[in-house]
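Regression test case RT-17, inverse folding.

Input:
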C-alpha cells in the first residue's frame, strides 16, 4: 500500500513539472501566522460568575425583614435563624433598612433556585450570602473606590454654600472650608464678593459620590484679605498652614456653632426683648434652629453647669486657661457626659441650641471673659499653634510652590460657565517676588 501511494505521488509530481514546461519551480516557504487563542471570559459580578444566573433587583419594603425575604425564596425560618446567628459579625440582620437595595441571583433551572442573596450595606460595601454549597456562606464585598481630583472657584453672592452649589461642586466643600478656616475666617460675616479657590479629591463608587476625601489646597479671600490653606504633615499629624508656615489652627474657634446668624451683638446698653428695658448684653447671640449642636471654642474644663434663674436658662461655663473663660447660655439641653470637672476638647459638642430662660426664640448667648472681665467674642485674638519647624521648612516650601501653581490654574466662572477675570495673585499673597 505504501509503495502504491509512493508511485502516485511520483506520477503527480512529474505531471506538475511537465505542466511547467519541464522547468524547475522554486517553491517559496509560506509563513504561517500565529493564531490567537480566544479564551473564554465569564461575566462576573461581585466575584460571582453570572453567565448562568438571572438577577433580580429589589428594595426592602416597610415592615419587611431578611427572614421574610429569604423565606419567600424557599429558605426555612430555622435556616435563616442559623445563618443570622452564625454570621452576625459579618452582618447584623437587624440593620436591614427600609428602602435598602438587594439582589437575588437565581439559577436557570426549570425550577429556579436562589443561588446568591446580595444586600447593600452601604454604597461601597455589600454582604453576600452564598447558597450554592452544602452550607450557606456569608461574606462582604467592597466595591472599588476611585478618587478623582477636582477643582472649584466661586465668588460669593449670597452664601458660601450656595456659591459652591452654583459651581456644580459637592456642597460639603462649604463645610470642609468652614472647618479648615474656623480659626481665621468669620463665616458669620461672609460678605458679597468674597471668593474662594479649592483643589480637592472626591471619592466615587461607579458614578455615585462618597464625599470629599481631602482638600489639597485652598485660597479664601475675605474682606480683602487672602487666606491660604496648605496641608503639611508635621510631628505625625497633618495640619493646614498659611503661606508663611503658620498653622491655621488657633487656640480658639471663631464661633461655637456652624451656619447661623448673629441676632444681637455685644453691647453695654441693649434693649432686652423680654424685659422691655435697656441693660448690658455682654455676649453675642447666634440665632439657630432648636437642637443645633453647640461646640466649645477651645480645650478646657467645665467649671459650672446648671440653670440660671435670672435669664440665662441652661448654661455651661468652661475655663480654658488662667486668662480665658467662656459661657454658653439658653441651651435646650446638655450633651452626654457634660458635667462639672469634665475636660473638653476644642470643637466638642457640649450642648444644643434652645430657648430656655428669658428668650423669645431659639438662640445661643455666647460670652467670653478675659481675666474675669467680659469682652466682645468677635474681637478675641488668639495666637497660632506651632508653626512649620525649621527642619521642615525646605519641604514645606516645595509643597507651597505646588499649591500656588495648582491654585493659579483654577479659574473663576459665572453661572453660565463663562470665564471671569482672575485677580492678580502677586497682590494677594504675602510673599517675595522670587517665590512667585
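Golden output:
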Amino acid at each position: 500500500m505504501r509503495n502504491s501511494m509512493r508511485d502516485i505521488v511520483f506520477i503527480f509530481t512529474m505531471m506538475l513539472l511537465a505542466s511547467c514546461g519541464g522547468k524547475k519551480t522554486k517553491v517559496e516557504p509560506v509563513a504561517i501566522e500565529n493564531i490567537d487563542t480566544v479564551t473564554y471570559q465569564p461575566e462576573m459580578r461581585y466575584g460571582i460568575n453570572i453567565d448562568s444566573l438571572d438577577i433580580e433587583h429589589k428594595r426592602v419594603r416597610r415592615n419587611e425583614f431578611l427572614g421574610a425575604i429569604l423565606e419567600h425564596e424557599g429558605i426555612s425560618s430555622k435556616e435563616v435563624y442559623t445563618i443570622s446567628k452564625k454570621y452576625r459579625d459579618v452582618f447584623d440582620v437587624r440593620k436591614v433598612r427600609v428602602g435598602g437595595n438587594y439582589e437575588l441571583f437565581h439559577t436557570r433551572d426549570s425550577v429556579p433556585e436562589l443561588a446568591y442573596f446580595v444586600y447593600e450595606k452601604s454604597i461601597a460595601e455589600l454582604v453576600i450570602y452564598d447558597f450554592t454549597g452544602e452550607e450557606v456562606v456569608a461574606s462582604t464585598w467592597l466595591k472599588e473606590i476611585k478618587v478623582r481630583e477636582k477643582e472649584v472657584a466661586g465668588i460669593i453672592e449670597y452664601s458660601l454654600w450656595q456659591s459652591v452649589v452654583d459651581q456644580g461642586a459637592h456642597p460639603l466643600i462649604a463645610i470642609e472650608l468652614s472647618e479648615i478656616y474656623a480659626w481665621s475666617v468669620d463665616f458669620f460675616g461672609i460678605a458679597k464678593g468674597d471668593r474662594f479657590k479649592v483643589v480637592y479629591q472626591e471619592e466615587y463608587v461607579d458614578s455615585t459620590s462618597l464625599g470629599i476625601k481631602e482638600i489639597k489646597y485652598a485660597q479664601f479671600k475675605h474682606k480683602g484679605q487672602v487666606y491660604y490653606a496648605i496641608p503639611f504633615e508635621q510631628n505625625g499629624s497633618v495640619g493646614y498652614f498659611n503661606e508663611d508656615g503658620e498653622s491655621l489652627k488657633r487656640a480658639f474657634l471663631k464661633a461655637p456653632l456652624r451656619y447661623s446668624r448673629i441676632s444681637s451683638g455685644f453691647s453695654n446698653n441693649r434693649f432686652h426683648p423680654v424685659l422691655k428695658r435697656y441693660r448690658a448684653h455682654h455676649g453675642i447671640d447666634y440665632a439657630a434652629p432648636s437642637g443645633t449642636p453647640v461646640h466649645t471654642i477651645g480645650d478646657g474644663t467645665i467649671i459650672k453647669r446648671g440653670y440660671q434663674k435670672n435669664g440665662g436658662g441652661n448654661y455651661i461655663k468652661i475655663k480654658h486657661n488662667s486668662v480665658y473663660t467662656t459661657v454658653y447660655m439658653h441651651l435646650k439641653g446638655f450633651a452626654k457626659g457634660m458635667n462639672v470637672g469634665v475636660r473638653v476638647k476644642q470643637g466638642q459638642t457640649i450642648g444644643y441650641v434652645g430657648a430656655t430662660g428669658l428668650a423669645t426664640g431659639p438662640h445661643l448667648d455666647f460670652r467670653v471673659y478675659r481675666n474675669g472681665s467680659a469682652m466682645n467674642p468677635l474681637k478675641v485674638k488668639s495666637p497660632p499653634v506651632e508653626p512649620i519647624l525649621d527642619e521642615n521648612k525646605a519641604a514645606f516650601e516645595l509643597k507651597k510652590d505646588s499649591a500656588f501653581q495648582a491654585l493659579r490654574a483654577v479659574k473663576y466662572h459665572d453661572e453660565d460657565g463663562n470665564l471671569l477675570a482672575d485677580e492678580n495673585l502677586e497682590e494677594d499673597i504675602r510673599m517675595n517676588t522670587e517665590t512667585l
